Amino acid sequence: IVANAAARTLRGALTVFPYQAIPTSVAVEIGPGSRQTFRLADVAPAAFASAVVELDGGDAVVELSLKGPYGDTVAPCASTASSQWYFADGVTTKDASETLFLFNPFPDDAVVDVTFVTPEGLVTPQALTGLAVQGGTTAFIPVGDYAQRREQVTAAITARTGRLVVAKLQTFDGSAGRKGLALALGAEATGTL
User: Fold this and answer.
1) Rg of the chain in Å (alpha carbons)
2) What are the distances in angstroms from CA 11 to CA 59, 60, 119, 193?
3) How far is residue 39's CA from residue 62's CA, in Å, rounded to a whole number?
4) Among 8, 60, 77, 174, which one is most buried in terms of CB atoms within 10 A?
5) If phi over 0 gives left and psi between -120 and 50 gives alpha, with beta otherwise, what is residue 92?
6) SS in 3 state form for the chain?
7) pLDDT given for residue 57 in this prediction
8) Is there a contact between 142 and 171 (Cβ–Cβ < 8 Å)?
9) How many angstroms separate the CA atoms of 112 and 9, rounded?
10) What whole-number distance in Å separates Cα of residue 30 and Cα of residue 38?
11) Do residues 64 and 183 touch, judged by C-beta distance below 8 A?
12) Nearest to 143 by CA among 176, 166, 110, 111
């Protein structure tokens, strides 16, 4: 969803980076005070994809909307990439699924380390240490493969080289009461309370 709060038309491009496929761009034009919705699968069919919206001016807002069998969710898109991303809470119980999406919009590869913290302690999966995320691609991490059946999972993604954008999709299938999905952009830094 691209909204234009400016008093003039914004023009640019939407580039979709489908999983394991070549990126595809389409021209976009958003009139003053209006919005447009683009279905990424119509631009580049794939199981999942990331996107970059580039416009010829500011005063635009971009959000991602997902609809699925467990419900709907909307989240803001990132306006910058970062070398660090954090997620305070995730769930990988029998009824839940948490997936991290690591998008590298740049031509050079990024190399990242992914760690998790559960009530039982630190989890540092060898497969996620020095993980390469190729330029112009998205990698996904099913968190439950590394922190299984946990009611609390904190995630930290730190790039050794490069920068990226990281989002999380949390789903609950309803078998234990909760049903729904939530998409969230990570925090670029930790803070103090």
Assistant:
1) 17
2) 12, 11, 48, 42
3) 13
4) 60
5) alpha
6) CEEECCCCCEEEEEEEEECCCCCEEEEEEECCCCEECCCHHHHCCCCCEEEEEEECCCCEEEEEEEEECCEEEEEECCCCCECEEEECCCCCCCCEEEEEEEEECCCCCEEEEEEEEECCEEECCHHHEEEEECCCEEEEEEHHHCCCCCCCCEEEEEEEECCEEEEEEEEEECCCCCEEEEEEECECCCCCC
7) 85
8) no
9) 39
10) 12
11) yes
12) 166
- Two structure tokens written together for 64: 């991602």
What pTM does this model have? 0.94
Q: Which amino acid is at 158?
A: T
pLDDT computed for residue 191 by the predictor:
84
pLDDT means over runs of 10, the chain (193 residues) = 96 94 95 96 92 93 94 95 97 98 97 98 98 95 97 98 98 96 95 79
Strand order in the sheet with 60-68: 35-36, 2-4, 60-68, 71-76
Return the structure tokens found at 114.
Answer: 């992914």
Pull the structure tokens for residue 36.
């447009």
Strands 24-30 and 10-18: antiparallel
